[in-house]
Every structure is written in C-alpha cells, then in structure tokens.
Write a structure and sequence with these properties.
Residues 1-17 form the signal peptide. By secondary structure, the chain is mainly β. Helices cover 15% and strands 50% of the residues. It has one domain: Porin, CATH 2.40.160. The protein has seven helices and 21 strands.
Length: 472
C-alpha cells in the first residue's frame, strides 16, 4: 500500500496553529503588545531575556488525529486508516506556526508626569506552514485507479505553503486620552526559506485504452515556487557549517526582504467597557535570490504497462523492462524549471474583543507624583480571531475570564471554538518576582488526558525584566 496516506495523517497529527487567544489582552505581559500595537501598557520600560522572552509552539488539526488511526482499540488498522481518509475533506487543513523571540524591549516617553507614548522593538524568528488535505490524491493512493475508471481526480486539492523568516519590528503606541489609545508597528521581513504551491489546477482520469487495458490522461496546471532552498539542497554544498552560515546571514537581513505593518487600538467608552482590535502582518516579501520554480502544464496521456514483455526475445530481463517503463513514464512529463522572481504575501490576521471589568479594588495609596489609582480585579469578554489563508479565512471565537489574584500574580482562563475543536479550554498565568516577569500559557486542557486524541495543543512561555509604572 502507498505510504502517502500515512504521511498525510502524520503531518495532520503534528500540525500547528497560530491563534494566541490566552495572551491577547493580557496587558501585564509586554508581548501582548505584539498582538495589538494599540493595547494597554503596564510598564515604564522592559527588555526581554534574549531567546527566552517569548517561545510559542502549538499543535492542531481540523481532520483526524493520531488516536483515530493508531489507537490500540482492537479495530483493524486498515479499517481505521480508511475511515480517517474518507472522513476528511479537501477543505480540512493542517497548519504549523512557531515563534522564537531573539530579543525585545520597550520604553515609555513623553511628559515626565504623563508618559503617554511607548516605543517597542525586537527581532523574532517564525516558521509558518499550511497544507490542505489532498483528498483525491489520498483516495487514489489508497484505492488505486483500477476501480475508478472515468473518475476525475482533482489536482487543485494539492495546496501547500511553508516559510521560515525573521522579523525586525519597531512599534509606536500613543494614549490620546483616558478613552482612546492607538498604535502602529512597522516590520522588515527577511525570508530564510519559502515554498508555495497554492494555485494548482487540472485532473487525472483513467479510461479504457485502445492499445492497452487503460489510458491514463493527465490534464495539469501545477506550479511550485521556492526560494532559499536550492542552495541548501545543492549536492555540491555538503558542508553543514556553510549551511549554518547561510542561515545566520538570512536571519540578519541577508535573505529575500519584505515590508509590513500592524495597526491596533483600544477604546474605553465607559469606565467598565472596552473594545479593542488589531490587524497584523499586512505585508509582502519579494523573492529575488536563490529561486527555483517548477511548472508542469499540459495534457499528457500514458497507456500504461504492456502486459507482454515485448523485448523478451532480445533477452531483456524483468528489471530492465520495468526500469524502461519507469523512464518512459517520467519522460512523459515536461517539467519547466525557471528562476523567475515572485512576491509572497503574509497571512493577514484580525483580532477584536469586547471586555467588561468589575470588582474594583484600590491598589495604591496617594502620593505627590502618582494620584490614587483604582483597578478592577476581574474582566470578562469575547475575542474574535481570523487569519487569511490560501483557500479561505479561518476563524475562532473565544470567551475569557481574567482575575488579578493578588499582588504580582494574574490569571486568565479561556474557552475557544475554532475549526479544531468546540471544547478548547486554556489557562494563562503571569507572575512578577520583583522586576522579573514570568508567564506560562497553554490551552486545550481537556485533551491532556489523551494527548494523541487532541485536535489542538499550544504552549507559550517567557521571561522579561520589567520596570512597572505606578508600582503597586
């Protein structure tokens, strides 16, 4: 049996998601400003501990899980594999996103008694991947084409995109008044490696042949665009240290470059009601270096295997015969290779939330420099998240409860409905030990009793050094 279904299901089980619903709006944590450049700020200045200030990994799948196929439940493996393949659709997606912050910092400035502006900056590495489930390809690999005469298999189901890049950013936030705050963030992208095949068309069909049992007809319009991969995979470049040097150079603006920006705002129309939102990664990358593209376009016909060894009288062996048939099949397709430059667009993300605060508690006594301040201990709200993907927009809706437990410790619990699950419960904690901030966040806790059956799992953590304003 073909290994393609096994590979697709493995990718499905290891896929990652990009939503950070627990971190969004958690203003004690400086990295929350990355999700809304116009969000609230709770410090005078901070710097992130290099390589430890923000680590984000998550896993999820809108299709079958590893448990569906590999569970030791007495059901025949082939039956479970078949059920998994047929239960998923072409719109099921497998995504991956990982972020590692290399360094970050920020500081408030303005009037000494009213620092209402904030500048933040940093550099992070990101890996982003999405692949839609190739339904027809998986069915063809599982069933073969013998019993699928005259059935057209859709080539557009092949849809995948992956990229690794570094992002240098500088953000500006201004608190206009007690009600309104806005922010913008500029970004410079440096692509480390990129591969994209998202506009495929065509079909494959098997028909009764005239000169043989079957005639296989391929009507294809396929394209794979890559940058940053050819030199790394070049057989002449076998030294690992050379690859590491190349990757370091691309990490520090030596790759294909692009520009982007984020915008966001916070508006408090009443003392206890707040609405906020942001648009992230409105940007592009122009790929001009280390490009290798592959194009397959046209109609191809292959009448299959001759049931008789036509060269048997010439003492041709079976291996020689099949090798010749394989070569004929490969020669059938005329794959064009080019180095044409191209532009890729970053996946635009939307965040928006409505929040209600309650349980007012006085945290600081009055002094000459800082007036008496009151904050609310609790917040509840709803957050909408959306991300633009090659085929459609993926969305998630989150309800949350935030609680300031006591001085230096806050918690946030979330419940999220998204394409992965209708029962995603998350929890985040932020602790301040002196000026050191540590945070830890995870979601989909209900799935931890059987991690192999989880549709999505995520983890975020980090360390920062923070000088708080209006120290409580």
């Amino acid at each position: 049996m073909s290994k393609v279904p096994y590979l697709m299901l493995l990718i499905c089980c290891l896929s990652l998601a990009q939503n950070k619903q627990v971190l969004y709006g958690f203003s004690e944590i400086p990295q929350a400003l990355m999700l809304n450049p116009g969000g609230d700020v709770k410090n005078d200045w901070y710097f992130g501990i290099p390589l430890l200030s923000h680590i984000h990994v998550s896993a999820g799948s809108s299709g079958s899980s590893a448990y569906d196929v590999f569970a030791d439940d007495g059901v025949n493996f082939n039956n479970k594999l078949k059920a998994a393949i047929y239960s998923m659709e072409a719109n099921d997606f497998l995504t991956m996103n990982e972020q590692l912050e290399l360094f970050s910092g920020g500081f408030a400035f303005g009037d000494p008694y009213n620092k209402n502006k904030y500048l933040s900056f940093g550099l992070y590495k990101e890996f982003d991947f999405i692949s839609y489930f190739p339904k027809d390809a998986a069915v063809l690999a599982y069933e073969g084409n013998q019993n699928n005469n005259n059935r057209h298999f859709n080539a557009s189901h092949l849809n995948v995109k992956a990229e690794a890049l570094s992002v240098f950013h500088v953000g500006f936030q201004k608190k206009v008044n007690k009600q309104f705050t806005y922010g913008v963030r500029g970004k410079v992208y440096s692509s480390i490696a990129h591969a994209s095949s998202t506009k495929n068309k065509g079909s494959f069909v098997t028909q009764t042949g005239e000169n043989n049992f079957y005639n296989h007809i391929f009507n294809l319009d396929l394209e794979l665009q890559t940058s940053g991969l050819a030199s790394l995979l070049d057989d002449d470049n076998s030294e690992l240290k050379n690859d590491i040097k190349t990757l370091k150079n691309r990490l520090l603006f030596g790759g294909n470059l692009g520009l982007g920006f984020d915008v966001g705002f916070t508006y408090k129309w009443e003392d206890q009601w707040t609405v906020d939102g942001s648009l992230l990664d409105l940007g592009f990358i122009t790929h001009t270096k280390d490009i290798k593209n592959f194009v397959l376009k046209g109609t191809y016909a292959f009448e299959g295997v001759d049931p008789f060894f036509s060269e048997s009288e010439n003492n041709q062996t079976a291996d020689e015969y099949w090798n010749a048939m394989e070569a004929d099949f490969e020669d059938l397709f005329d794959v064009e290779r080019n180095t044409t430059r191209y532009t890729s667009w970053r996946p635009v993300k939307l965040n928006a939330s409505l929040n209600y605060a309650f349980g007012k508690k006085r945290f600081k006594a009055c002094d000459c420099l800082h007036p008496q301040t009151n904050e609310y201990q609790n917040r509840v709200g709803a957050q909408l998240y959306a991300i633009k993907r090659p085929r459609s927009t993926q969305m998630a809706l989150t309800g949350y409860y935030y609680r300031r437990l006591f001085k230096g410790l806050s918690a946030k619990a979330t419940y999220t409905v998204d394409p992965y699950s209708f029962s995603n419960v998350g929890l985040g904690l932020s602790a301040h030990l002196g000026n050191v901030n540590f945070y830890l966040m995870a979601d989909n806790f209900l799935a931890y009793q059987n991690i192999y059956n989880a549709q999505s799992v995520s983890l975020q953590l980090g360390f920062n050094y923070i000088f708080k304003k209006n120290e409580d």
